[in-house]
Amino acid sequence: MFKSRVRNYTNKVKFSVKTIEKGHHNVSFQGVPMIKCPFDYLIYQMLVWEVKPDLIIEIGTNLGGGAFYFASMLDNMGQGIVHTIDILDQVSDQRVLEHPRIKRFFGGYQSYGLNNAHNFERVLVVDDGSHLYEDVYNALEKFKNLINENSYYIVEDGIIDELGITKSYKGGPNKAIKEFLEKNNSFQIDTRWTNFFGQNATFNTNGYLKRV
What we know:
By secondary structure, the protein is of the alpha/beta class. The chain contains 8 helices and 9 strands. The strands form 2 sheets. Strands 5-4-3-6-7-9-8 form a 7-stranded mixed β-sheet, sandwiched between helices.
């Protein structure tokens, strides 16, 4: 009986980017899949609380967990809304569909009218879209002027380099970030967040871009 209670006990500690990547596909927020690295899941709530954005623009709704998470944080602050953008409508959870702080847009980031964000004083953008180099770069160029000083444009999933799948994304987020920063000196990588748990110990490697 005693042995059965401790049969899974081990002194071994073994994990890697690959095991975290596998697990992050099972992350949810209040039962809604959101597919976020646990490191970034934690960082977001600190960053959003600090910035206190009036508007969070999320590129890549998927099943709606991210939008629901952000909207719930804004609920706690008593301000702000989420504009979440996707190509397909994959959201089925009524809490996401009916949340008063969530407004959905379709047609991809290309179809989002920037005029939708003009009446907001503090805007934060999170790109969790295709992760293709061209899309990441073009979205950065499109939305950059919406970001207020001391707010952020966050590019997700540069970790694809570490996972060895960069080629599938035509260079991916990190290539786009590097080229963007070379041409735009009003943004810088905020290592406070990228290095919070260790150097680039985030799935958003180099991706916490602060407007300065």
